[in-house]
Amino acid sequence: MFRTTALRMHSLVKGAMNVSKPSITTTRFMSSHSTETDEQFDARYENFFNRKDIDGWEIRQGINDLCGHDLVPEPKILTAALKACRRVNDYALAVRILEAVKDKCGGRVNEIYPYLIQEIRPALTELGIDTPEELGYDKPELALQSVYEIH
To answer: Three-state SS across 58-87?
Structure first.
């Protein structure tokens, strides 16, 4: 009885192995390079932030995508993002964008960040937005005096 069952199973397995299987080819596009120029990149993000129907979530998404790149955004992109924050009436988001840009400057913050603030200063004045430094956010709020410097 075992022999007949084993022979039947062998014939079933052998028949299943003879069935042709479709070949699947996978393709990965990781090595393809972007053909977008710097000007096109800047125009794409500037147009994204200049949309009239943009909302706060989309502004956050655009800034998050922008911060994911290995670059510091151009002043014209920042100006468009700050104006978008003004259109949706989100002052806190505008200040957070400035904080994120300062963080993106990395080790060259003393060179890049003052230049960016200088370039976007007219837009900041027009929109009534203060920088994090003007608001005192660059210093800890509840910092206590060091015990070693009291006397």
So the answer is: HHHHHHHHHHHCCCCCCHHHHHHHHHHHHH
The Cα–Cα gap between 110 and 66 comes to 21
pLDDT digits (tens, 9 = 90+) for 62-85: 999 999 999 999 999 999 999 999
Residues in the chain: 151
Collapse the DSSP code of 129 into the 3-class scheme (helix H, G, I; strand E, B; otherwise coil) and give the result.
coil
| Positive or negative torsion for Cα 47, 50, 54, 56 | positive
- Residues contacting 77, CB < 8 A, separation 6+: 42, 45, 46, 49, 66
- Contacts (Cβ under 8 Å, ≥6 apart) of 42: 74, 76, 77
How far is the CA of 38 from the CAs of 8, 57, 83, 133, in angstroms?
68, 25, 22, 30
Mean pLDDT of 124-140: 90
**H or E element: which one contains 130?**
none
Range in 28-32, 91-95, 99-103, 119-123 the model is least confident about? 28-32
Helices (H), the chain: 2-17, 38-49, 56-68, 75-87, 91-104, 109-127, 132-135
